[in-house]
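Wait, can you check?
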Amino acid sequence: MSLSSSFIPEIDRYCDRWCERCPFTSRCRHYHLEQHQSPQVASGESDIFNAEFWMQMQRGLAAAVHRISLQAAAQPLTPGVADLYPHRSAREHPCSLSALEYAGMLDQWKSSDRIWPPLPEEAGEIIRQYHYFLYPKLVRAIEVGLTSDSGLPVGEAADGTAKTVLIAIDRSLAAWGIVYQAYPRYEDDVLPLLLHLDRLRKSVEVLFPAARAFHRPGLDD
């Protein structure tokens, strides 16, 4: 296989730029250009390790969603569809503001005078990675899509970017689910974060109904 054909075209177009945890670095031209290394240098071992890491997180997501479902009877989680569109401002869109609120909730968590136990290493890594990721990426998805007369986000670029946001939310949910399981006595602090993320996830799925099915080159093959 030639050097050029080993890369997957446009694989970096809808990624989250977290190369350290990407299972496709050996097939990404953007990564190799940034690292100034040729494809021969990459053995692919880190890609295999990262693939296993995200499989574990997927199981964590299932557990987190199960916990959230147990709260559904007490707290309505379905977003108000009428509040999501039409809307002309991406930065002031309810979904964007919800993502910004999540970042603020984490800021409060970090700056609190309370003494928290250390986060489980892998969960903490994910939480920190996506702390400030959701808001600007979601604003971008809505900005890209707000081109129709209806004011609704439409189009391939919007769906692809929204899918990246949804995956980041899924991973954050899984990470907080791990924290919830590790420190059950902090349930009252962790559960609001889980519920907030779940509401945001469902709102984004309503706003971008085709996002989950969007096919990202390489990443979804």
Notes: The chain has a mean pLDDT of 77. The CA atoms of residues 87 and 123 lie 34 Å apart.
